[in-house]
Amino acid sequence: MTTDSQPREFKRGLGLLDSTMIVIGSMIGSGIFIVSADIARTTGSPGMLLLVWLITGIVTVVGALSYGELAGMMPHAGGQYVYLREAYNPLVGFLYGWTLFLVIQTGTIAAVAVAFAKFTAVLVPSLGEKNILVTVAGLKISAAQIFAILSIVVLTFINLRGLREGKIVQNIFTITKTVALLGLILLGIFFASNSDVIAANMSNFWATTWTKLQDGKIVSIESLTGWMVLAAIGTSMVGSLFSSDAWNNITFTAGEVINPKKTIPLSLAFGTGTVTLLYLLANVSYILVLPVSGNPEATDVLGRGIQFAASDRVGVAAATQIFGDAAGVIMAVLIMVSTFGCNNGLILAGARVYYAMAKDSLFFKSAGELNNRSVPAWALVTQSIWASILCLSGTYNDLLDYVIFAVLIFYILTVIGIFILRKKRPDAERPYKAFGYPILPGLYVLAASAIAVDLLIFKPQYTWPGLGLVLLGVPVFFLWKNKK
């Protein structure tokens, strides 16, 4: 029996399958069905669309393989927070945890929950964004926002019941959505490909253009060459990187993973590799079924193309070519399953970081306590409250742009941490060493840094505020330290 002198501890209940399901499930949300539209508008051709996804996949897998070394070296609850703390200092670790709580994790949870609500509204129109329930101080609160919050509350409650309940939900929903996505891909490639569409896409396979809109209408189509091609690739990767993010969540749960020194690196490799392949095949399916170029004023799916799929729902547009009128309902169900499972993984994992911070006296003390089911209950509740507030505060795309820049900053710092820890702790146990060290981790740092700079230049309205949020954590850190 647990007593005050015997504090509760995490229970190790996540095997390799469970851990891989957390990686895959946290990565696959709604992005793969939506963001290819914006990428197509920014790059303008099938070849560039696929190249953006390929680069994203390579960057993601290399980053995950690099994290494997840190996960094997420091298999502790909190994962990336611990890596940054140990490689640099408590301030850098805190800035990550602060930004994770303020924007990265909770913002992603909110964005995914809003997407879940949007697609639920396809089946239940009364839950849509246009159904305004109340207006408070000029802020219009819709049924979709309330339903998004409800989904966060339900998943938080499930995870409060224990690790076993959380992982069961994760495994069921991840397997279901992975099989469904693979089925959609195969149908698109082998049964719904359109020879006219293929001919049109092949005729301008590498022609790079940047299409800019205002009020839903095209204002310019700029042909790109030289450095502007790289700028377009970097800018368009906001969506693909967001869709491929959250693979690091498994590191947060290291305290509950069976044989974490081996299991976490393997789950990172298997999970990111699987999702990268699925995402590439999904976009191959899209360009076999739909033309990349289109017209926003067209009235049919083919006329609008990938660029101007209604509400950017490229997955629905492709499914329309496969299933006809039933496509909307089929895709709505698939994305509901996908986003619900995605948020379960995010909610489960994120709370473990706040738990680790609280143990370092850098977060609310109650967040560092486990309930009688060995899960950080107060950390889960605090996370759900803030994520729910974010559901009311902004749109899906705003949250996406804020999140990805902050994510990149800390991914870069963490991979650099491998080099630092090789120097600081040369004799530390490393059951797994970063693949291709030092070349591949070094290339990852260069590529991710280039993307971050590109976003600072071309999306300053989102990235500079994101940087400001990170730096705002500096005085907060010293306030916590003084409180301690």
What does this entry look like structurally?
The longest helix has 34 residues, at 90-123. It contains 18 helices and four strands. It has a single domain, classed as Amino acid/polyamine transporter I (Up-down Bundle), CATH 1.20.1740. The chain has 484 residues and is mostly helical. The strands form two sheets. Strands 1-2 form a two-stranded antiparallel ribbon. It has a two-stranded antiparallel sheet with strand order 3-4. Helix content is 68%, strand content 5%. The protein has helices at residues 16-27, 36-43, 46-73, 80-87, 90-123, 143-160, 163-190, 195-203, 227-243, 249-252, 260-289, 301-304, 314-323, 327-359, 377-391, 396-424, 439-458, 460-483; strands at residues 132-136, 139-142, 209-214, 217-223.
Q: Helices, strands, pairings?
A:
Blueprint lengths: L15 H12 L8 H8 L2 H28 L6 H8 L2 H34 L8 E5 L2 E4 H18 L2 H28 L4 H9 L5 E6 L2 E7 L3 H17 L5 H4 L7 H30 L11 H4 L9 H10 L3 H33 L17 H15 L4 H29 L14 H20 L1 H24 L1
Antiparallel strand pairs: 1-2, 3-4
Helix pairs in contact: 1-7, 1-11, 1-14, 2-3, 2-9, 3-9, 3-11, 3-16, 3-17, 4-5, 4-16, 5-6, 5-14, 5-15, 5-16, 5-18, 6-7, 6-14, 6-15, 7-11, 7-14, 9-16, 9-17, 13-14, 14-15, 16-17, 16-18, 17-18
